[in-house]
Amino acid sequence: MSQIIEGLDILTPEAKQEEQCAVKTTVEQNTGKQRKLYVESYGCQMNFSDSEIVTSIMQQQGFDTTDSFEKADVIFLNTCSIRDKAEQTVRKRLTQFNTLKEEKPELLVGVLGCMAERLKSQLLEEEQIVDLVAGPDAYRDLPNLVKQVDDGAKSVNTFLSREETYADINPVRLNSNGVTAFVSIMRGCDNMCSFCVVPFTRGRERSRDPHSIVREAQDLFNKGYREVTLLGQNVDSYKWSENSELKGKAQIERAGEMDVVNFANLLEMVAQVHPDLRIRFSTSHPKDITNEVLLTMKQYDNICKYIHLPAQSGNSRVLELMNRTYSREWYLDRVDAIRRILGEDCGISSDMIAGFCTEAEEEHQDTLTLIDYVQYDFSYMFYYSERPGTLAARKYEDDIPLETKKRRLREIIEKQQTISLQRNQRDVGKTFKVLVEGFSKRSDQDLQGRNSANKVIVFPKKHYRKGEYVQVRVHDCTAATLLGEAID
Ligand code: SAH
Ligand code: SF4
Ligand code: F3S
Questions:
Q1: How many CA atoms lie within 13 A of 203 on its CB side?
Q2: 193 lines ligand 2 (CB under 6 A)
Q3: CA distances from 291 to 266, 329, 444 (A)
Q4: Of all helices (H) and strands (E), which one includes residue 48?
Q5: How far is C-alpha 114 from the geometric centre of its chain's CA atoms?
Q6: What pLDDT sits at residue 124?
Q7: Read out DSSP for 320-369?
Q8: Cβ of residue 235 lying under 6 Å from some atom of ligand 3
Q9: In CATH, which superfamily holds the domain spanning 13-157?
Q10: Distance between CA atoms of 369 and 374, rounded to whole angstroms?
């Protein structure tokens, strides 16, 4: 769940930490409605996708959106708690709104998302400027919560649901390139990785009705979109029963396999929407990714040959402490299956945590050798940040000194950068089908898109346009980007 900005050139620890806090605002929409809403999102794609649901709910209730917070009557920050730094960023941002609120006392400031869920009403006490706190399952209640604030009270809803998937809400696409879109297929997480705050902030895992997912994908395709990314914390455990009376995992298991749509089935259903609609997905969990999923990927050209398969560590003892429920050997077996079924060119990326509780130097070395073995195309790399309330915070001492964590992280990043460059050099001379997403970041004379393996490719624009598939021959590369030339 972490690919917000692709192809970062500089992979300093600080840059990687910041990257998860990418900010995105609403688009300007002016239909003469009375109040204006400004939304800013932090964290993972799931939060970005949720902001699109929030905007849809608010627009239905008579709000216009604005891309400038100075013009806003209501400001929502959709927040992340994954590491301490993510929360600090939000707190800093809140203080920046203080002068604005002094000038405009009727301004309503709401905190949504994972930090809202983690801190609940405590946030109202700690941050005076905040009027409204809403957790990830409480967004249908936002109009009501806003009304409570209008009536003079502060409002909080952090109720976590076992059923809410917002399946019927048509997201308002924010900051969209009109070509690629995120589609949530499930919410919450039932794993209990010991370092992770997500099960506490997002609640129990639940899957969304596959028919509503297919409808959304079809609708996006009709509107000109050519790629959807199916989102969930652990997409491989997607499970939905046709029998609408059956809800919850236990009942689904009792329903028998015939009634159940699993992730491989869902992939196939979405792939059949149209051969020109590309499908991506994130995040895969190493314990759950099946050969059935890999074989479905192989069967459909439009399912992209790229898997984000976070390892977190290359050492089995550390993985056990992390409660990841797989060993180094299990992980490598899954990587071998990917290479065997989908070939050497299938993109693989990872998330890595340096300096988890009690990690010894040799165990850190195991992470480096794992990276060597797998040959990831890229990775999101972090040092361990203890999160209150998690299993690790309760059971283990955060005993690796910050300097050691940072040094290990640096070593992981350096190793990964070397491998990213080598993996890109392998592609020089090859030709790829690229979906054009828009201008390159550096020049409006160049276009940029990605190949099936999720590599960013930049090439001179000639007569090509956004949303088109173009054959591009690669002639050069950096560690982050392939450079090429379109072939007519
Ligand atoms: N569901 C995804 C991960 C979501 S969080 C999965 O299971 O892979 C994204 C990434 O943030 C994680 O993969 C992990 O590498 C990192 N992360 C989570 N908690 C962290 C913590 N306490 N300290 C440092 N990194 C953390
Ligand atoms: Fe967190 Fe683990 Fe769930 Fe991922 S699978 S969201 S790391 S608990
Ligand atoms: Fe995502 Fe951050 Fe929440 S990574 S699920 S927004 S804690």
A1: 19
A2: yes
A3: 15, 16, 42
A4: helix 45-60
A5: 13
A6: 96
A7: HHTT-S--HHHHHHHHHHHHHHH-TTSEEEEEEEES-TT--HHHHHHHHH
A8: no
A9: Methylthiotransferase, N-terminal domain (3.40.50.12160)
A10: 9
Judged by its nearest atom, the ligand closest to the C-alpha of residue 1 is 1
CATH (one of 3.30.930.10, 1.10.760.10, 2.60.40.1270, 2.40.50.140) for 431-487: 2.40.50.140
Q: Which residues line ligand 1 (CB under 6 A)?
A: 1-2, 82-83, 195-196, 198, 233-234, 283, 285, 310, 312, 351, 353, 382, 384-385, 387
Both structure tokens of 286: 């190493």
Task: Check pLDDT > 70 for residue 172.
Answer: yes
C-alpha–C-alpha distance, residues 448 and 176, integer Å: 15
Question: Across the strands, what pairs with 281?
Answer: 230
Helix (H) or strand (E) holding 124: helix 122-126
Distance in angstroms (rounded) separating the CA atoms of residues 247 and 167: 15
Q: Is the pLDDT of residue 257 over 70?
A: no
DSSP category for residue 312 = B
Predicted local confidence at residue 28, as pLDDT: 73
pTM for the whole structure: 0.93
Residue 4, pLDDT score: 34
For residue 240, CA distances in Å to 207, 211, 218, 222 come to 6, 10, 20, 26
Mean pLDDT, residues 48-72? 94
Read off the pLDDT of residues 323-358 as tens digits, 9 standing for 90 and up: 999 999 999 999 999 999 999 999 999 999 999 999
The two beta strands, 306-308 and 260-262, are unpaired
Q: What is the pLDDT of residue 175?
A: 81
| Domains in the chain: boundaries | 13-157, 180-425, 431-487
82 Cβ inside 6 Å of ligand 3 = yes
The proportion of the chain whose per-residue pLDDT surpasses 70, expressed as a percent, equals 91
Enter the DSSP assignment of 303.
B
* 12 contacts: CB under 8 Å, gap ≥ 6: 413
180-425 carries CATH number 2.102.10.10? no
* 3-state percent helix, strand, coil for the chain, nearest multiple of 5: 35, 20, 40
pLDDT by residue (tens digit) across 388-438?
Answer: 999 999 999 999 999 999 999 999 999 999 999 999 999 999 999 999 999
Nearby residues of 401 by Cβ (< 8 Å), 6 or more positions away = none
Q: Is it the case that residue 5 has pLDDT exceeding 80?
A: no
The pick from 194, 234, 236, 287 for probing ligand 2's pocket by mutation, whose C-beta has the most ligand atoms within 8 angstroms, reads: 234
